[in-house]
Specification:
about 0% strand; mainly alpha; about 100 residues; 2 domains
Length: about 100
Amino acid sequence: MKEFYLILGMMVVTFGVRYPVLALLGKFTMPKQVIKALSFVPVTVLTAIIVPEMLMGDGIIDIGTANPALFAGLVAVLVSWKTKNLTWTILAGMGTFYLWRFIF
């Protein structure tokens, strides 16, 4: 029963923080600069999640050849930049990661 109250409390807090902002945004028009800036939020958040994991797999910064995530990430960035194809990016990154782990 404690879990139910914990989840209910998290729901109330999350809703209480987010709803007023969303309710107010419907009544105002946002400047184009703000809308343009908000379009970069997903990319920024994803980068903030992925880059530390690529550089610090075990909690220590590792930019050597023993870090397969770093090289897989670099290959994925290059493939993404060249092909603009999500499937090829994932396949190239995962393939490089497992190949690098197998070799080293």
